[in-house]
Design a protein that fits this description.
heterodimer, A: mainly alpha, B: alpha+beta, Jelly Rolls, 2 domains, 6-stranded antiparallel beta sheet, 4-stranded antiparallel beta sheet, elongated, DD_TPGS1 (chain A)
Chain lengths: 284, 256
């Protein structure tokens, strides 16, 4: 109802302003009045705050997406005749949650956590259901959507989902939701890095299997370094993963075996991702 | 002079009390001093009184001949290898040493051999310089080998009429210690332990290690972040591994 009233108010205000006085000064004042009454000022202010918080590389598409989502926020769109179906509603909510989650990179921890909580609220709030909260089915769907949009291969995603998925009927608390979201985004970045690493190892069009395996083994060794206190573990890993140690490992691998087959990108990514997923704590 | 000061400090640290006059000494003496200070064992000796050599009767003729002889025997120690002689000078200008060693078996008597001839202790016998110095004499300064020393005879000369009484004080004789850490010492000095150098003898053409290293380190960092960020929340699932009871297994927070 409030939306239906909104289009009429500015028209009335403008016509009143035109009827009231044709003078310039009053027209300026009434323009400000018009903007405030239309709610445009607050809307733009919220939009600018969002841009400042997210700091996107391309502000214009970001703002376009923002206003797009703004229109979807109210359950009944102004002008739409029928209320949308339940499935469409859920898709919309997932889409909105995704958009919120993508606003900040996972390394910007405060902004990311804020967005995660907003997304959680968005998914949990629903007018139709009796009990608010996030169910396992929506959570799983969201996870799959994130991985699919990030173009992660299926063989990598499914072991991760097995670890962090929840059953359909379970209610997902906020901590587990946050952990799942963070793990997904970090895995996507990890896969991107592994891809870049494969590119570096793939000089002259062929990534030698021995070299790839040596690099992966060194990474595994550094990850196993362990149960010691944090600073010494980081120092040890840093020394193991330094350029000279890696060069020695690769050189030794090339001298050790004689085979000359190449490792494919998919296999490399799968092996690298398995190292990552091994460190993910399963939900339960 | 700097070497001299170092040697003095070294010997002071090692407990030796010998301060040789270093002006005319060489680096060989310095190393010999360092080596000997590390491992020397004093040999007990019997020093007979200084005898002035003069022509005629000592009691009747008043004179200062300027030559003294000191005999040194080693009754308790058998023939030994002499390494070092230390003493404190007292206005002796020149020193000669004769040694009697165990000779070869076919010789009947042991002969006296001069091992040090007119060693100058005071550059100018009339002046004070070197008159009261502490002096060390080493094996390598001798003219012959000092392998099996039986007796020593030190001949002191002071030609200046200014110094009527002259002698050598605090005579000490040293041989090699049971083991010689000096060799180990110098080895340590001359061959410091090489720190590990990465063998940059890479045979094949490898992918750029810097880029590989940076990517791998980022991957490690991401994995560590996930490992560190483990949530402690539990979903409260009760799993019973029985197929019939699978529907009843998840009791907590069941969604209608």
């Amino acid at each position: 109802m409030a939306e239906k009233r909104r289009p009429t108010a500015p028209v009335a205000g403008a016509s009143e302003a035109r009827r009231a006085s044709p003078a310039r000064g009053l027209a300026t004042e009434s323009e400000e009045e018009f903007l405030r009454q239309a709610g445009v000022t607050s809307m733009l202010r919220a939009a600018l705050l969002k841009v400042l918080e997210a700091r996107p590389d391309e502000p214009l598409p970001f703002l376009a997406h923002y206003f797009d989502n703004l229109g979807l926020r109210s359950p009944a769109n102004g002008g739409a005749g029928e209320p949308p179906g339940l499935l469409l509603l859920q898709q919309q909510r997932i889409g909105r949650a995704l958009w919120h989650l993508r606003l900040a990179h996972h390394s910007q921890r405060t902004a990311f956590n804020n967005n995660v909580s907003v997304a959680y609220e968005c998914l949990s709030a629903s007018g139709r259901k009796k009990r608010p909260g996030l169910d396992g089915r929506t959570y799983s769907e969201l996870l799959k959507r994130i991985c699919r949009d990030g173009e992660a291969p299926e063989e990598i995603v499914s072991p991760l989902l097995q670890k962090i998925q929840c059953r359909d009927h379970e209610a997902v608390p906020f901590d587990i939701f946050r952990y799942g979201m963070l793990t997904c985004f970090v895995l996507l970045e990890f896969v991107a890095r592994a891809d870049a690493l494969y590119e570096v190892l793939d000089d002259s069009g062929q990534a030698d299997r021995r070299v790839c395996q040596a690099v992966l083994d060194t990474l595994e060794g550094a990850l196993l370094a362990g149960d010691f206190e944090a600073p010494s573990r980081y120092l040890e890993a840093g020394s193991q993963l330094g350029p000279d140690c890696l060069a020695l490992a690769m050189d030794r691998a090339l001298l050790a075996r004689k085979s000359n087959s190449a490792m494919l990108r998919d296999e490399f990514l799968e092996k690298a991702a398995s190292l990552f997923i091994a460190k993910v704590r399963p939900v339960g | 002079m700097l070497i001299g000061q170092l040697a003095v400090r070294l010997q002071g640290l090692l407990g030796g009390v010998v301060f040789p006059a270093w002006d005319s000494r060489t680096t060989e003496d310095f190393y010999a001093a360092a080596a000997s200070a590390m491992s020397r064992v004093q040999v007990p000796c019997h020093i007979k009184g200084a005898v002035a050599l003069q022509v005629g009767d000592v009691r009747t003729v008043q004179g200062r001949p300027g030559v003294l002889v000191i005999d040194v025997t080693f009754p308790t120690a058998g023939p030994f290898e002499l390494q070092e002689i230390t003493f404190k000078n007292y206005y002796t200008a020149f020193l000669s040493i004769r040694v009697r060693q165990v000779g070869s078996p076919n010789q009947s008597s042991n002969k006296w051999i001069t091992c040090l001839r007119d060693y100058c202790l005071m550059p100018n016998p009339h002046n004070e310089e070197g008159a009261q110095d502490y002096v060390s004499l080493y094996k390598h300064q001798m003219l012959c080998d000092m392998d099996k020393v039986l007796e020593l005879r030190l001949i002191l000369r002071q030609p200046s009429p200014l110094w009527l009484n002259f002698t050598l004080e605090e005579l000490q004789f040293f041989q090699h210690g049971p083991q010689s850490p000096s060799s180990a010492f110098t080895k340590w000095l001359s061959h410091p332990a090489p720190y590990e150098q990465p063998a940059l003898l890479l045979q094949q053409a490898l992918p750029d290690p810097d880029k590989v290293s940076s990517e791998v380190q980022q991957m490690w960092m991401l994995t560590e972040m996930i490992r560190a960020n483990r949530t402690t929340a539990r979903i409260g699932r009760f799993d019973v591994s029985c197929p019939a009871a699978s529907a009843l297994s998840s009791l907590a927070l069941i969604w209608p």
